[in-house]
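Course exercise 7: structure representation. Students receive a sequence record and must write out the corresponding structure in token form. The form below is the worked example handed out in class, using Elongation of very long chain fatty acids protein 7 (281 residues). Read each field label carefully; the graders check that inputs and outputs are placed in the correct fields and that the protein name is recorded exactly as given.

STUDENT ID: A-19
EXERCISE PROTEIN: Elongation of very long chain fatty acids protein 7
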Amino acid sequence: MAFSNLTSKAALLYDEWIKDADPRVDGYPLMTSPLPQTVIIGAYICFVTTLVPKFMENRKPFELRQLMTLYNFGVVAFSLYMVYEFLMSCWATGYSFRCDIVDYSRSPMALRMVRVCWLYYFSKFIELLDTIFFVLRKKNGQVTFLHVLHHSIMPWTWWFGVKFAPGGLGTFHALLNCIVHVIMYTYYGLCSLGPAFHKYLWWKKHMTSIQLIQFILVTVHIGQLFLMDNCPYQYPIFMYIIWLYGFMFLVLFLHFWYHAYTRGKRLPKFMENGISKSKDQ
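STUDENT ANSWER:
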């Protein structure tokens, strides 16, 4: 009886909370409630940390080079498309890069932003394949806590962003992330083509710098908003979440930079594997 009452109260609280959601995303897959994505992410964590490593224990690693080439360059193409859509949806056509609020109208521009926000959210599920490729190839050292946390938390938190605030200042880090992914997955795609293409990868040493710049820009962009007297952004909680996420990874990348380039020492294993992928990705 007590459990039934608790469930009823939880349902009422959920109904009260969800009524403020953006109705424009109602027809998009996975947007009905956070439960389906929670199940997917939970299955992903169980799959890559327990089930597949156990299955692969006495088996040879899979040779997935061709599949990974297709996957990496597919992500490049998808990321390029999202960069274009984010720019055309407002970042190159009206946003100030300061206190940009969400446009909840049904204008073509506003609906275009809603669509690319959902596409970015969905891309986070596609990127779960990164980890699955690791475990199928028995690269279990790459499946660190940091790696799994990053791939799990991004789609889960972005559900709330798309559900309540698809647009505005909260999408700046998504635009940057898509730009960085164009560069990163191009690198991984060339790696997957084999040693003959490694001579074109002289820019590997700049990969950390590019990712570091990304988190600096995210942190500064959100940080400036806390200094404004009045920013009418509709969901301030997202500002804190984005800033915390950007700052956390900024610290991790600065730590990486210090050990790898200032002291020239071998990185702690969780940093080495958690931040950068293996060369033969």
